[in-house]
Amino acid sequence: MSTSVTFLGGLGEIGRNCAVLEVDGTLALIDCGLMFPEEDMLGVDLVLPDFSSVVERASDVACVVLTHGHEDHVGSLSYFLREVNVPVFGTPMAVEFARSRIEEHGIKPDLHAVEYNEWVDHGGLRFALVQVSHSVPQAAGVVFETPEGLVMHSGDFKLDPTPMDGNPTDLPTFAGFGRQGVRLLLGDSTNAERPGFVPSESSLGPHLDAMVAQAEGRVILACFSSHVHRVQQAINAMAAAGRKVAFLGRSMLRNSATAVELDLLKIPDGLVVEMDELLELPQSEQGVISTGSQGEPFAALSLMAACEHRHIDLDDDDTVIISATPIPGNETRVSRVINNLIRIGVTVFHSGNATVHVSGHAAAEELRTFLNVVR
């Protein structure tokens, strides 16, 4: 058999997504992500895919293909590339999000931005990226031409009818590949047991607007720094309420700047200010968009909840919006942050008491629709 797929992570777990496609002895990695440790993994900071079998065949590795820029898909790249530094292909946002993390480790990556539906021929492999809607702009599925037929990896996706960026999952292109004949489909199954359809990301906007509008003191909204669509909605809500905004957390500062450079994050002139300038304003005019939605011990929100942040001392007039759901393994840490915030007297909106998050992963009927389109 000339074509095979091996998974190094991502099956039966949330995170460290990484698969190896082998075609006639040539290897390509599809994504290269990390995972948060489980509660029983004491002393462990990050969980990586086991690259050992691939490193042993370093000369056979042609490239890495990224489906999108979330940490569970790109977060292990620096650890892999220091062993096997091969070209990395992805959409412009995916490769730019990956670039900063890789260069932090002193590695000079060979990154290639690829447009949708543009066939890439590299190292004996031929593949194309197809537009999908997810919780980060410029997400993609990937299709490989192989001697055994088309191999399709959906990436993380949903069938969002009103996506924030106006770019829905490209069902016509996927259907075209289906008519050609797809030999193997590897599909996002995160919400396979959830019935129906996942709400649109844009449906969250009115809920965030209302929470920010009713707040009396400062508003701190925590979300994933790579969730650009959520950051955009937070900016919109803060602007509508007449608040200035400061970004807090290294990855939030970095990723928001990248998204602005790629024209994927729209910020009104004068809205975003430095933290020192923000703190000089009345608290009713202050808005903070922060990291720490997963209860990470040294993230900005955790430090605020522990009364250890160097800039912000929360009080009972403040409102915190945790715009995410806990990733499996993080529930205890997120609960600890919420408890600490409540002890301070802060008003806390989270996934257990308010509509603060919608998933970026297709539910059962969306998966059924996608399967029928490809089939």
Write the layout of secondary structure elements.
Blueprint: E1 3-9, E2 18-23, E3 26-30, H1 52-55, E4 61-65, H2 71-74, H3 77-81, E5 88-90, H4 92-104, E6 111-113, E7 120-122, E8 125-132, E9 139-146, E10 149-153, H5 171-180, E11 182-186, H6 205-214, E12 219-222, H7 228-240, E13 244-248, H8 250-261, H9 275-278, E14 286-290, H10 300-305, E15 319-322, H11 331-344, E16 347-349, H12 364-374
Parallel strand pairs: 3-4, 4-5, 5-6, 10-11, 12-14, 12-15, 13-14, 15-16
Antiparallel strand pairs: 1-2, 2-3, 7-8, 8-9, 9-10
Helix pairs in contact: 4-8, 6-7
| CATH fold-type name of the largest domain | Metallo-beta-lactamase, Chain A
Question: Which oligomeric state applies?
Answer: single chain
Calculate Rg over CA atoms: 21 Å
The helicity comes to 25-40%
| Element pattern in H and E | EEEHEHHEHEEEEEHEHEHEHHEHEHEH
Task: Determine the mean pLDDT.
Answer: 93
Strand content: 15-25%
- The total tally of domains equals 2
Structural class: alpha/beta
Name the CATH superfamily assignment of the largest domain: Ribonuclease Z/Hydroxyacylglutathione hydrolase-like
SS element count, helices: 12
**Strands, total number:** 16
Distance between the termini: 23 Å
CATH class of the largest domain, anyone?
Alpha Beta
- Give start-end ranges of low-pLDDT stretches: none
Label the overall shape.
globular
CATH architectural type of the largest domain: 4-Layer Sandwich
Across the major sheet, the strand order is 1-2-3-4-5-6
